[in-house]
Amino acid sequence: MNQIIGAASILLAATLANAQDAPMRFKSTEVVPGIYMLEGDGGFAGGNIGLLVGDEHIVLVDDGLEPFAPALIDAVAEVAGRPIDFVINTHIHGDHIGGNAALSAEGATIVAHDNTRSHLIADAEFGPEGLPVMTFSDAVTFHVNGHEAFIFHIEAAHTDGDAVIHYRNVNVIQAGDIMFNHLFPFIDLDNGGTVDGYIAGQQRILMMADDETIIIPGHGPLATRADLARDLDVLIDCKARIKALVDQGKNESEVRAANPLAVYHEGWNWDFITTERMTQTLYRDLRSEQPN
């Protein structure tokens, strides 16, 4: 299965099965004046989407799954009153960049980290129409609509091309998939992600935030600094639980049988990253750190 699009395939299949009953719509939540979070209303339409609205330009952060791009375009028009000028991709996965081609055809300029563009070029199933045409290596700042949107790279975390957006003047952070609010996170080891990098990325965001910061996560409801600190503590503890077994010489089957993350199953297990899959990811990452 294509690794880039595969990250969303399970949830997409379920969504499309339900889409026969009702068309997808997007609901918008105004986070602060001029900045919105968009999400599927009644089904999974992809990761959370940021929208920056003002007199100068309309900026979208991520654009959901490909089948729902027309509904997204309509939703943005309803909120903003005009077409999208820029789209910022936070990373490569299909539930965050699926609308690229449709939005590019509408005149939007796609922006992403260098590694995100490189991955998409290498993906035979991703056409040139949706490629980012502006890229950055470390950071770039958008000065638009009275906002200072600082976009910076988080290394080897969820993927190797993650971008986080800090709206410095209004204390809002859009974390992309560096945060799955109260869910086991997806750490894509096949596309440059690492557990330690993910932890470091969350720690960096935590240092930028205060008790008043509003965080738009990649998945889940709007979050606070306390929510992120809780997620970080859980991930650190999950890694420690798996590491203790790896250090004892347990193989993967033995680690899975021990079910060391059972304490978090009820609150953190979900459709895509189950307790078992989180265990497998942590085990695989830890084993890769060990010398041959």
What does this structure look like?
- With 292 residues, this protein is an alpha/beta fold.
- It has a single domain (3-236), classed as Metallo-beta-lactamase, Chain A, CATH 3.60.15.10.
- 37% of the residues lie in helices and 23% in strands.
- It is built from eleven helices and twelve strands.
- The chain has helices at 3-6, 9-18, 69-80, 94-97, 100-105, 114-122, 195-208, 225-247, 252-258, 265-268, 275-289, and strands spanning 25-32, 35-41, 49-52, 59-61, 86-88, 109-113, 134-136, 139-144, 147-154, 162-167, 172-180, 214-219.
- It has a seven-stranded mixed beta sheet with strand order 1-2-3-4-5-6-7. A five-stranded mixed beta sheet has the order 8-9-10-11-12, with helices on one face.
- α7 (195-208) links the parallel β11 (172-180) and β12 (214-219).
- α8 packs across α11.
- It is globular, with a radius of gyration of 19 Å.
- The two termini are 29 Å apart.
- What general outline do the C-alpha atoms trace? globular
Q: Could you please say which CATH topology applies here?
A: Metallo-beta-lactamase, Chain A
CATH class: Alpha Beta
Order of helices and strands: HHEEEEHEHHEHEEEEEHEHHHH
What's the end-to-end separation, in Å? Answer: 29 Å
Number of helical runs? 11
Q: On the 0-100 scale, what is the average pLDDT? A: 92
Relative strand content: 15-25%
Structural class: alpha/beta
Radius of gyration of CA atoms, rounded to a whole number: 19 Å
Number of strands: 12
Would you identify the CATH architecture? 4-Layer Sandwich
Counting structural domains, the number is 1
Uncertain segments are: 8-20
The neighbouring-strand order within the major sheet is 1-2-3-4-5-6-7
The percent range for helix content is 25-40%
Give the CATH superfamily. Answer: Ribonuclease Z/Hydroxyacylglutathione hydrolase-like
Largest sheet: 7 strands, mixed
